[in-house]
Amino acid sequence: MEENQDIDIDEFSFKELFIILNRYKWSIFLITIISMTLGLIYIYFNPTVYSSYAIIKVKPYIKTKPEDLINNTIATKSKDVTEEITLLKTFNINQHVLKEVDFSVQYFIEKQYKKTEIYNNIPIKIKNIKILNNEIIGKKLILIPQKEGFILKYVNSYKKQIENKFFQTKLFSLEHNRTFKYGEKIINKYFTLTIDKKSDINTPIYFVLNGEAREIFEKIIKPNLNINQLEKDTSLIKISYIDNISTRAQLYVNALSKKFIELSISNKNKHNTKTLKFIVHELNKIGKELKESEKKLERYQVSKSIVKPSIQGSILIKKLSNIEIEISENNLKKRLIRNLINFVENNYNLDAIAPSLSKLKDQNTLQLITKLQEHQLEEEELTLEYTDKHPKLKSLRKQILNIRNKIKFNLKNLKTNISYQNSNLIKRKKSYEDKLKKLPSQERHLINIKRSYEVKSKMYEYLLKKEAENKIIQFATLSDYQIIDSAYNFNKPTKNKNSLILLMSIFVGFIFSLILALLRNSLNNGIQNQEDIKKLTTLPIHGTIPFYKQKKYQLKVATDPKSPFTEGFRTLRTNLQFIKKSDSATTILITSTIANEGKTTICANLAKILEMAQYKTLLINLDIRKP
Question: Contact at 8 Å (CB) between 206 and 114?
Fold first, then answer.
């Protein structure tokens, strides 16, 4: 029984809602139309947004299984790209891109009552910008062309003007109204800049100064740059950027992709670059010494008329030269090892030192680096599934630390061995120099000059060879990233939410008008329908008469017998017949509280409908105010 009552209540509420909607239909319609109009205005003045994207592939890890002698399998695993995504979002990467894609100034023109940004064919060029007060950043300044130059202005928005009027807030002003010439340096308390004219200007040009690279990144780039993993368990990164200018969005995405790859190669070559710089420095130094040594040898041979030393002298020259070359090479290796030790102490990934170790012919350390890479790969796999406190992960990290310490220990041992070799070489060199002292003074002097020349010559050749090797390594370095799909220009809005905005404005307008209609209905204390009478009284209802508006009194039941109005009176007549208890006369009183509620119309038409059914009817007017 209770369930049926609930259903009746729901049906009643739903029906009542439709009655309210019908009663206030015009106000609901008008409010919805106003809301839709406001939505269309917003869509019109809101700038069109374009999107451009590129896809980068991250090099996967490759792990071989040499223990399988028959089938040497290779397992590849997608790399976790979280680190790359984070790096691409940083200012450190994006500041290099902002040097190629200029966001320092944005230009606008007024067209069809709205300001539209222009990127190509801009009639002016603003340069040499220096921001003196950050209050100017983001303000839309106006350049108004004149016969002999231009005027710079700033117009405060209506909102700012209202705030100034009622709350005495400060209005922004450029504080100068003079005419400037193109190419002239403009100086005020907010900025210094120069405006050059590129083509004829017929209409005002609006422009916005966006400040330094950091402000541009935080306010413009960061909110519009979106970088994410294309699909789960893949090594593909999607770089997308949204902008009002489709060309600029494309340029920015392509520039960011290329710069990221260039910087990754640069980081991989960082150690090799340091070695190369050292080699070039030594080459320049030894090159100068070689020229001086060559001239000195030539002058001595001419002045003393000595063309070449004796056989014994030549042997000593050769042996001393070889020793000094070996000592110089060892000194270079010691410098290289110092750099390697520093690199191991300050870097997690040691891939970059492998080429240098191959030059030192240290196979043990190379094997340790290979083992370290395998452990690091395993560590990365475990971190995806377990926390830092997991026993296996803790054990693996301890092994990684031990391997790093072994690599560092091996490098230090290598350095010690080279130092020991040098000390032995220096002793051998001293013994040969003692033998050299026994030769005649002129020949001894010639041998020293010639030895110095040959050592520097061979060292120069050795450094040239090492320079070439390092350059080849540098050019052969490949990035861990590859552009799979470059950004391109769509030339149509790809993130257009106009349809959604329009639907939302219609929906919001309808809901607001509906709430307003329900509120108005709840505040209305008048009787709206027969249900209100049933709720408030126990009086029986014998009939309802449709609303009928007339300019003059007329008997509608007689003139229009098929109308709903006449049918209502027929129903009322029938119901009144059922309440008649005897053949005596029935008296019906019709009254209301105020004038113009329809007493006369009801009385006349009810009397006529009764008369039409052959009832003897007497109609008496008892209007006290109008007797």
Answer: no
Question: CA 96 to CA 535: how far, in whole Å?
Answer: 77
Half-sphere exposure of 390 (CA within 13 A, CB side): 13
Residue type for position 321: S
pLDDT tens figures, 567-626: 888 888 888 887 766 677 788 888 888 877 888 888 888 898 888 888 888 988 887 777
Furthest-apart CA pair in the chain: how many Å?
A: 171
Q: How many CB atoms lie within 10 A of CB 492?
A: 9
Composition of the chain by helix, strand, coil, percent to 5: 55, 15, 30
Question: Taking the chain, what is the end-to-end CA distance rounded to the nearest angstrom?
Answer: 55
Q: Select from 469, 476, 480 the least CA-distant residue to 356.
A: 469
- The Cα–Cα gap between 513 and 183 comes to 57
HEC string for 29-86: HHHHHHHHHHHHHHHHHCCCCEEEEEEEEECCEEEECCCCCCCCCEEEECCCCHHHHH
Name residue 405's amino acid.
N
Residue 80 contacts residue 233 (beta carbons within 8 Å)? no
The answer to whether 609 and 557 are in contact (CB under 8 A) is yes
Task: Classify residue 154 by its DSSP letter.
Answer: -
Whole-model pTM over 0.70: no
Measure the CA–CA gap between 232 and 235, rounded to whole angstroms. 8
According to DSSP, residue 180 is labeled: B
| Burial environment of residue 579 by CB neighbours within 10 A (0 to 12, 13 to 18, 19 or more) | exposed
